[in-house]
């Protein structure tokens, strides 16, 4: 844990008692802050209370008595409308921050030179975060990895001059971290996402830009127009920018967990970060081949048959699914779920790669119209396990040497699952249950 000593004696209100919220309360208490924690869920409040953490009803609190208000990243700050706690904090004129900002302030207070790598982007940030951490560990560094991936940032060990923090940051977290100033900031790409929380693409892009605007080195993808424009504007502002692309010359032939052009960009980002932190290129390149990959992100499910099953449940939008489709010559494609703005029309250039599509969840009817309009053979499966059965049976009849069943939903999971991890586990379970 990182005790928030920079908040010692401060009065702090915390709203949101999920995993990161509880970690925040523990950190503040350990650092000597006077905390009042609350959640709209009475069960979450009871859980915190049972742990011995300080709770109180913020609906009745005088917000002007607090020095800071810490908001969980999943709670609306601006759109579709500010949460009631945000309104109270604004009316009282107190700052509204998140757990990333607490870490940033603690780093400034106890180890301002501590190496800190922050990663964001619409797609690929989790893989890139894990890859960077892997490369640095292979180079012998003491690495702490977390944030929007796995472990809450304040549950990580404290910053120090000999320890590297590699932290994935969502747009929600960046929006609550005005002091964000990583040693190396990585902004991978931008495509339409989370507009229900940010209102417009301009707002979304501006929030992402904050992660790299004050970084010592800004590693920025330049394969989409918004990111390319961001790289130029950062250079104009005097920021040290390293541009990366899917077209960079990197040999990933031995790295099975890094297939596809999008992983060239991910690898390029990892190499740029390693270089900025003084890791020799030879050491970093060697580490790429031993990267094991991440669950639910282009994850190959091992089976005894000739059909390759790929779990890409993390593909929650069309842009992410495009990366997966581009990685194979032909696929039996399982997709669907809770649809996002724009649907899958943007994936039309990849439709010739689809042998057949299998539709699940809420998006089925809309996706069927798009696929049918482009002459793509498709079938309604309804559920992931049924889709796996249907796709596996068709793939087994294929004359391809290594037919691929690709689960890349291009949708959120919330119509049938709690999250993409649960959805990916359902795919894995269905694959392993097949009689091959």
TrEMBL record:
Domain Mur ligase C-terminal, chain residue ranges per copy: 296-411
MF annotations from Gene Ontology: ATP binding; tetrahydrofolylpolyglutamate synthase activity; UDP-N-acetylmuramoylalanine-D-glutamate ligase activity
Catalytic activity: UDP-N-acetyl-alpha-D-muramoyl-L-alanine + D-glutamate + ATP = UDP-N-acetyl-alpha-D-muramoyl-L-alanyl-D-glutamate + ADP + phosphate + H(+)
Residue ranges of domain Mur ligase central in the record: 119-250
Enzyme class, spelled out: ligase
InterPro entries the record matches: Folylpolyglutamate_synth_CS, Mur-like_cat_sf, Mur_ligase_C, Mur_ligase_C_dom_sf, Mur_ligase_cen, MurD
EC identifiers of the protein: 6.3.2.9
Sequence intervals crossing the membrane: none
Domain of life of the native organism: Bacteria
Residues the entry annotates as binding ATP: 121-127
GO annotation, biological process: cell division; cell wall organization; peptidoglycan biosynthetic process; regulation of cell shape
Pathway: Cell wall biogenesis; peptidoglycan biosynthesis
Cellular component aspect of the GO annotation: cytoplasm
Keywords: ATP-binding, Cell cycle, Cell division, Cell shape, Cell wall biogenesis/degradation, Cytoplasm, Ligase, Nucleotide-binding, Peptidoglycan synthesis
Similarity remark: Belongs to the MurCDEF family.
Biological function: Cell wall formation. Catalyzes the addition of glutamate to the nucleotide precursor UDP-N-acetylmuramoyl-L-alanine (UMA).
Protein name per Swiss-Prot or TrEMBL: UDP-N-acetylmuramoylalanine--D-glutamate ligase
Species whose genome carries this gene: Hansschlegelia quercus
Phylogenetic placement of the source organism: Bacteria, Pseudomonadati, Pseudomonadota, Alphaproteobacteria, Hyphomicrobiales
Gene: murD
């Amino acid at each position: 844990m990182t005790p928030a000593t920079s908040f010692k004696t401060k009065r702090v209100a915390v709203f949101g008692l999920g995993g990161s919220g509880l970690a925040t309360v523990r950190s503040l208490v350990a650092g000597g802050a006077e905390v009042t924690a609350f959640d709209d869920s009475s069960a979450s409040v009871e859980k915190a209370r049972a742990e011995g953490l300080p709770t109180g009803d913020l609906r009745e609190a005088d917000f002007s008595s607090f020095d800071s208000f810490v908001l969980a990243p999943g709670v609306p700050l601006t759109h579709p409308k500010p949460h009631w706690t945000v309104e109270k904090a604004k009316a009282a004129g107190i700052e509204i921050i998140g757990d990333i900002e607490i870490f940033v302030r603690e780093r400034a207070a106890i180890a301002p030179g501590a190496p800190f790598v922050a990663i964001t982007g619409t797609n690929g940030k989790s893989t890139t975060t894990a890859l960077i951490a892997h490369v640095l560990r292979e180079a012998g560094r003491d690495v702490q990895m977390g944030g929007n991936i796995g472990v809450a940032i304040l549950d990580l060990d404290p910053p120090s001059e000999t320890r590297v923090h590699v932290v994935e940051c969502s747009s929600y977290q960046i929006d609550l971290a005005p002091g964000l100033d990583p040693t190396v900031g990585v902004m991978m790409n931008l495509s339409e996402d989370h507009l229900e929380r940010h209102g417009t693409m301009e707002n979304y892009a501006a929030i992402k830009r904050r992660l790299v605007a004050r970084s010592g080195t800004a590693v920025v993808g330049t394969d989409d127009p918004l990111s390319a424009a961001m790289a130029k504007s950062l250079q104009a502002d005097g920021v040290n920018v390293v541009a990366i692309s899917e077209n960079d010359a990197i040999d990933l032939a031995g790295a099975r967990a890094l297939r596809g052009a999008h992983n060239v960009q991910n690898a390029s980002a990892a190499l740029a970060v390693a270089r900025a932190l003084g890791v020799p290129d030879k050491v970093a390149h060697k580490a790429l081949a031993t990267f094991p990959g991440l669950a639910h992100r282009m994850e190959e499910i091992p089976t005894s048959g000739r059909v390759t099953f790929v779990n890409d449940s993390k593909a929650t939008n069309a842009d992410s699914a495009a990366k997966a489709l581009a990685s194979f010559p032909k696929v039996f494609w399982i997709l669907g779920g809770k649809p996002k703005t724009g649907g899958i029309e943007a994936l039309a250039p990849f439709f010739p790669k689809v042998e057949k599509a299998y539709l699940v969840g809420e998006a089925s009817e809309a996706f069927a119209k798009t696929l049918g309009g482009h002459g793509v053979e498709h079938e309604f499966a309804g559920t992931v396990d049924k889709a796996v059965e249907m796709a596996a049976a068709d793939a087994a009849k294929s004359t391809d040497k290594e037919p691929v069943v690709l689960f890349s939903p291009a949708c959120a999971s919330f119509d049938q699952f709690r999250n993409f991890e649960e959805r990916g586990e359902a795919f894995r379970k269905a694959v392993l249950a097949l009689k091959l």
